[in-house]
Predict the structure.
Amino acid sequence: MLPTSLTRPAAALAFCLGVGWCSLAPEASAAAPAEMRTWTDAQGRTMQASLAGIEGDQVHFLMSGGQTIKFPISKLSPADQDFLKKNTASTPAPAPAPGGSVPATPAGVTARLPIEKRVWPKEVEVPARSIEIAVVSEKPEEKNCVYQSEAFSFHSEEKLAGSVMKEIARTFEATRTLLQTLPWAIDPKPPVDVGRFQAKFFASRQSYIADGGPENSGGVYMSRDRTFRIPFQSLGLKLLGKTWAKDDGYSNDTIIHEITHQLMHDYLAFLPTWVIEGTAEYTEMLPYKAGRFRAAAHESGFKEYLQHAEERGVGLADINVAGHLMMKGDEWRAQADSGGLAQFRLYYASCVMVYYFCHLDGDGKGTRFLKYLDKIAEAREAWNAFFANPLVKVDKETGRYSWNSNQVTPPAFKQNEDFGFEQLQILMDGRTPAQLEADMKAGFKKIGIKW
């Protein structure tokens, strides 16, 4: 479930350290970073970082959370520009790529492996280091207990044992590992200003709902503050005496679904809702247990998903391919608000379509779908770079932004779902909706599924 508007505010696209004057960048230097120091830009804004390297007219900083960011040297204060001149003799630029050429990836753009070299994983397992838990603070009397795994920060109303937190973190970090491994090339990164993906755990449904959780949900990712909210009940936590314990037999489906939204945050504004929910349903239906996704068993997971749907009275014949493909967010929400089967049919049709495009369309390798996501990534990167420009002023609270039109030109890409709908031509590849439906029926027939 993603109840907030999918037309994402600017602040959610790229906002660094609460001041918006830096952009994500590849690591700039192989040299050991210097000590942390205070840096000041030409407008007097400051941040703490260590010097990581120089690349052309850009300085690269290493943040305390491990992120590397870059910033125009000319936009630094005169004192810091002078500091760089005196202290960068031994700080090299990026190492040349094989063959002697410097990597040509534009500043702020994530290099993407060519589609023909991407593979669908057989099994994805969370690394042990990812679920090592650090206790930041434990103040249950203030309903403020904070724990951290490698990439997530967990805010709990109650104190949780390290073993319990480790089991919870396992699902979160395993889902991140899955998204990093799938050929979708999502490359999820947490908000730079906080350094980790944020999650809030509520001891009761009442407190969950009071903090904005929808009444008909077991958990929700809210894009407005990039935080995943979930009640203890949906985490499989139960109170034994005075201690919260984890029910190992509890389903993690809701968690995996909503974390997928969180990890794909930078794509959400540009995508049709069926792609947003379909990708989350896809990850949710993959066989999963104890930190391991059996990704190669996607077909059996999908068939089990269809079987559960049939038990609820929902089948492939219910899908209106043309209508679902072009369904705008407003129409989706109008249907989904009724809940029950009407809502489930939307999720079901979305999962069916995403599964088809990933494994049964065309060459069976998901090539069209990967090209589609790459095009979405192109728009995402362009807007990220735009909002990272120090000449673009962003109000972090409201998401409103302004810029000097004589100095800055916004990207040509639309910053809403219309862009994603326009790019559906990549998926259609010259086919009409009727032809696509015929191809889908033929594709499912190949794996023994009758439409």
